[in-house]
Specification:
The chain is mainly alpha-helical. The chain has 5 helices and no strands. The chain starts with a helix and ends with a helix.
């Protein structure tokens, strides 16, 4: 009898502990989401700086080649920098995936807590609002993914310009890269604005909707 009571007591304490942990899970998930927004923003700024510097280097590249005593070193410098652009884009994508994962976990916890409510009307109203908020935010995240894809394409296009110029120089010519460069320059601001919008929408979600929960 004592053994049975002890087992029942342990089970009761375990269930209570799980419930308590569940109640505490939501604040932790909100904090993790907030922290990841900041991480994404920091990496976006680093990536932006690398891209802007890369474009500046491309702009000055033709003149640098004309003045260079060792053109191979100039090409190595430009390839190295755009390799850094690529690495930063990969890191940005990693932070984006973490942001998406944190958002999924947060919305899942909110849904679980909503569905635990006994009042059906309140449950229905909250689920409707929750679904709309989640759908709207994930549209933002989908646009973010597309913006990062555009960065990858831009990186590839920049390398194409450098590779073509390297062949031209090897043949004793200096190829005009201004058309390709103008195309790259015109795309950078739009891509960065799309990424900035992700940060704005994420902060808005946290500050105006999640923070007070």
């Amino acid at each position: 009898m004592k053994k049975t009571l002890a087992i029942l007591l342990c089970v009761s304490l375990f269930i209570t502990a799980c419930k308590y942990r569940g109640e505490q899970n939501l604040p932790q998930l909100k904090e993790a989401f907030k922290d990841q927004i900041a991480k994404f923003e920091r990496q976006k700024e680093r990536t932006d700086a690398k891209v802007e510097t890369g474009v500046e280097k491309l702009t000055a590249f033709e003149q640098a080649l004309k003045n260079a005593t060792d053109v191979d070193k100039e090409f190595k410098r430009i390839y190295t920098h755009w390799h850094r652009v690529n690495k930063n884009t990969e890191k940005l994508n990693k932070e984006y995936l973490a942001l998406k994962q944190n958002a999924q976990e947060l919305f899942a916890a909110l849904k679980t807590q909503t569905n635990s409510l006994k009042d059906q009307q309140t449950k229905n109203e909250l689920n409707k609002a929750l679904n709309k908020t989640q759908n709207d935010y994930f549209k933002v995240l989908n646009r973010t993914s597309l913006a990062i894809d555009k960065l990858n394409v831009l990186h590839g296009d920049a390398l194409e310009i450098v590779k073509a110029l390297e062949v031209a120089v090897a043949l004793g010519q200096i190829s005009d890269i201004q058309a390709g460069l103008s195309n790259i320059e015109s795309r950078v601001a739009g891509i960065m604005e799309e990424l900035n919008q992700t940060i704005v929408e994420s902060r808005d979600l946290y500050e105006k909707r999640m923070k007070g929960l």
